[in-house]
Specification:
- By secondary structure, this protein is mainly α.
- It has a domain of 185 residues.
- 68% of the residues lie in helices and 0% in strands.
- It is globular and about 50 Å long.
- 48% of the residues are buried.
């Protein structure tokens, strides 16, 4: 089932800082949701729990220096962020294609690389090294694509329609909620902490589901995940409305993780949670 590994262990330090990938000697087809969710948890951990984390909008508000952005500046930042997201998604697609013949064990190593990219991206952005942060953002996309390549290849052979349905539904889902968040003038950053803890609870629920048979587990997990990442999508686009160029790379990383997790959750639903 999507999100389940042959052996599934995690450690969850206080504050949700750094969730290493699950130990997975057997990377079964479809077992892709858990670790990306943990990656998103890491990226969204409260900044006061990550000393080097850039103080981006997720939990502490955007560093705008008290100056209002002009409409041209807002459009410029929006274009920059969306361009970065599109290129990162492209890197993920490239990784998924290049790694289509990889084994599940190799995928675990690429997930570790993705964690490293998140740490490095946050540190580079907080120190003003924009080009390095952008490179690590693209590396994050590439590593995640390589990590889930065996899963997507299995779906492409057995249920190709599920991939297209999930991709199309993801575009509609993120587009609609993103438009709502961007159009909302009220600052929605107060939602972030609640959603952060909800995401941790979802990961715990996923672990429990491995050892305990829960009726309609796949549907419950997927729907709850879509609610949580739908909320994060709204928040990230709402913050993008007020972002400056210094926040562009971290926000692009957040939106990319929103898109990727929504895609995997929808793939669970359209694919019937195949294991």
């Amino acid at each position: 089932m999507l999100g389940r590994f042959g052996v599934y262990t995690r450690w969850l330090p206080e504050g949700g800082v750094g969730h290493p990938p699950s130990i997975a000697p057997r990377f079964a087809p479809g077992s892709a949701t858990g670790v990306p969710s943990a990656l998103s948890t890491l990226a969204r951990a409260p900044a006061d729990r990550l000393p080097f984390q850039v103080r981006m909008a997720r939990n502490d508000g955007l560093a705008l220096g008290g100056a209002a952005l002009t409409r041209d500046q807002t459009r410029s930042v929006f274009g920059q962020v969306m361009g970065l997201v599109a290129l990162t998604v492209g890197c993920t697609a490239l990784g998924a294609y290049a790694g289509r013949n990889l084994t599940g064990g190799a995928g675990l190593l690429f997930f570790i690389g993705a964690f490293a990219c998140i740490f490095g991206l946050n540190r580079a952005a907080s120190r003003g090294h924009e080009q390095l942060a952008i490179g690590l953002l693209f590396g994050l996309g590439l590593f995640i694509g390589l990590a889930v390549a065996p899963v997507l290849a299995a779906y492409a052979k057995a249920q190709p329609s599920a991939l297209w349905q999930a991709a199309g539904a993801t575009a509609l889902f993120v587009g609609a909620l993103g438009a709502f968040g961007y159009a909302t003038r009220r600052d929605l950053s107060s939602w972030a902490r609640v959603l952060f803890w909800a995401l941790l609870a979802l990961i715990v629920f996923g672990i429990v589901g491995i050892f305990v048979t829960i009726p309609s587990y796949n549907i419950i997990y997927s729907v709850l995940g879509l609610v949580i990442f739908g909320g994060f999508t709204i928040i990230d686009f709402n913050r993008l409305r007020r972002a400056n160029t210094a926040s562009a790379v971290p926000i692009a990383a957040g939106i990319f993780l929103d898109i990727f997790n929504v895609f995997l959750l929808l793939l669970r639903l359209f694919g019937g949670g195949r294991s």
